[in-house]
Amino acid sequence: MSTDPWLVVGLGNPGPQYAGNRHNVGQMVLDVLADRMGGSFARHRARAQVLDGRLGVLPGGVPGPRAVLAKPSSYMNVSGGPVGALAGFYGVPPARLLVVHDELDLPPETLRLKRGGGEGGHNGLRSVSAVLQTKDYVRLRVGIGRPPGRTDPAAYVLHDFPSAERRELAVTLEQAADAVEDVVVHGLEKAQQRLHSA
Q: What is the mean pLDDT of residues 118-125?
C-alpha cells in the first residue's frame, strides 16, 4: 500500500451564510470525518482549512492511512487553486485525490464513487480539473436531486436543506463519510463494490 497521503477535499462556498446550502454538502461530509478523526480544521496558506491525521482503522485496531482533509476557503468556481496548491504542498498525485461534491443528477440520499469522467456542469469540478490538467481523480458524488418545477438549478444549490430533509441528510453524511474511509483504507475498487451493491 502506498505511503503517500490521501487528499480529501470537500467542495463548497466559504462563510456561515453558505454553510447549510446544498452546494456545501461536500464540506458537511468533511466535518463528519473531522469528528471521527478527533481533530479540528486549521487555516492553511493554500486558502483552505485543513486537518492532517489518520483516517479509519486497519486490522488489529491499527490507525488507518494518513489523510489530509481540506475545505477550500475560496468560492466554488475557483476551487482548483487551493486544491492544486494543497496537492503540491503535500505531494499528492491525482490518483490519491478524492473530491466530495454535490450532484444534481443523483436523487437525494444517493452516493456514487468514480474516478475521472466529466464534470456534469459542476463549476467546482471544472476548476479542479483545469488546474490539475487532468480529470483522473476520485469523486464521491452526493445526490441532492433536481430542483422542483422551473426553479433555477443555480439558485436551488444555494438554498439550505429544508428541515424535513435534515434527518435523512444526517444519515447520508455518515454514509458518505463511511465511503471516504473505505476508499482511503481499502482502495477505490473495494469501496465502489461495497457502496454500489448496498
A: 89
